[in-house]
Amino acid sequence: MLTRHAEMRCQQRGVRPEVVATLLDYGRSVRRHGADICFMDRSARRRARNALGADAYARVADRLDGYLVVADDGQIITVAPRLKRLKF
Known about the structure:
By secondary structure, the chain is of the alpha+beta class.
């Protein structure tokens, strides 16, 4: 599921596996440059909070400002913090 590059980026950036799973399960996905970008917008955060419950959501909420780049075969290419607004 994670490429070696994505594993290294998760470790370097302190992204826990539950954050990656939340982004994949509830995040908004946009096609960009031949890959899917998964990130959390307002409605995705609402869906995650409703599905996970307040306690589980609170454990990951502060780390959901990043994004994932997912290849067509489902492998996560990289994980990055979102420092600026994503433009589509």
